[in-house]
Amino acid sequence: MAESKLARLRRYYREGGAELVLQVACHHGYLPERMCHYSVSDLFRLRALDDRLLRRMRGDYLFSDATRADAEALSLLAWGNAPAKRVDYLAGLTEEQRIVRVTSGDALIGFLQLFRGEYDLSRDDYRSSRLRLVLEPEDVFLGYGFIDPAHRLKGIFPFLIRHAIQTSAPGSRFFTDIDRLNSGSRKAHLRLGFELAGSVRAWWTPAVATRWSLLAPDGGPPRRLGHGNPRVALATLLTA
Ligand SMILES: CC(C)(COP(=O)(O)OP(=O)(O)OC[C@H]1O[C@@H](n2cnc3c(N)ncnc32)[C@H](O)[C@@H]1OP(=O)(O)O)[C@@H](O)C(=O)NCCC(=O)NCCS
């Protein structure tokens, strides 16, 4: 039988106390977004790609750079709709940054965003706030990645990451951010050789701009990073 909401929240309380309960309640929409937001983004750096996962891919997939013409299909694939604002944003990314796409025959089945220079970390699809991360010249920040559910768990993601590495400048350092509650993505990255490098918390309540804080790895007091849409160097967030 499916676990009830209450039973799930009790389990989270036992695991991580009131903060985890709040995180889960916001993430799953048990608390409406207009009332509050509370999320933790874990930052990961790639230590070294574990190529044991690159022996085979179950299927015939190709990796190439997306262009403006792919923007609508990318939006439909990952979000199931294509509002003009998001399509424009994705079209811009294909030119100002990079999006690597995965195709199977004529079908677009996945993608990964790659950022240089700056990356906007957001846990609410940029609706109310974002934390602008300023990157070092050799840093590549891996933004949203998505594989069509019908093609997941076939080992595509490791090949997508390898393609991103092989087609980036030699000596690049790779980072990404994952919502702490996204255990599937966390697992997919950890087994590839990503390691936890820091954690950032965002929370807001009505009439209070989003407060961003850097969480201490030892559970000590968080360090304030700013309100609203602050700008910080990624290097200052790497606590581990
Ligand atoms: C994360 C994602 C890109 C992985 O793509 P993929 O091609 O399926 O990746 P892999 O085939 O390497 O499999 C991932 C591994 O992670 C784990 N994993 C992935 N999704 C999982 C899930 N929902 N629950 C538990 N484990 C999961 C599995 O251990 C799997 O390994 P296995 O084949 O040995 O069981 C894909 O699941 C996805 O698009 N998720 C939704 C969007 C998302 O969360 N993106 C990441 C945002 S940072």
Written overview of the protein:
The chain is α+β, with helices and mostly antiparallel strands. It has a domain at 32-56 and 111-237. It is 27% helix and 32% strand. Helix 2 (71-79) packs across helix 3 (84-96). The longest helix has 23 residues, at 5-27. The relative contact order is 0.18. The site of coenzyme A has 18 residues, from strand 7, helix 4 and helix 5. Coenzyme A (COA) is lined by residues 144-147, 152-158, 178, 182-185, 187-188.
Which percent band covers the strand fraction? 25-35%
**Given the helix and strand composition, which structural class is it?**
alpha+beta
| Number of DSSP helical runs | 5
Poorly predicted parts:
none
Helix content: 25-40%
Question: So what's the overall shape?
Answer: globular
Distance between the termini: 40 Å
The strand line-up of the biggest sheet is 2-3-4-7-8-1-9-10-11
How do the SSEs run, as a string of H and E?
Answer: HEEHHEEEEEHEHEEEE
Strands, total number: 12
Keywords:
single chain, alpha+beta, 9-stranded mixed beta sheet, 12 strands, 32% strand, binds coenzyme A
Lay out the secondary structure.
Layout: H1 5-27, E1 37-46, E2 62-65, H2 71-79, H3 84-96, E3 98-104, E4 107-115, E5 118-121, E6 131-134, E7 139-147, H4 156-166, E8 173-179, H5 183-190, E9 194-204, E10 211-215, E11 223-227, E12 231-233
Parallel strand pairs: 6-12, 7-8
Antiparallel strand pairs: 1-8, 1-9, 2-3, 3-4, 4-7, 5-6, 9-10, 10-11
Helix pairs in contact: 2-3
This protein binds coenzyme A.
Coenzyme A binds at residues 144-147, 152-158, 178, 182-185, 187-188.
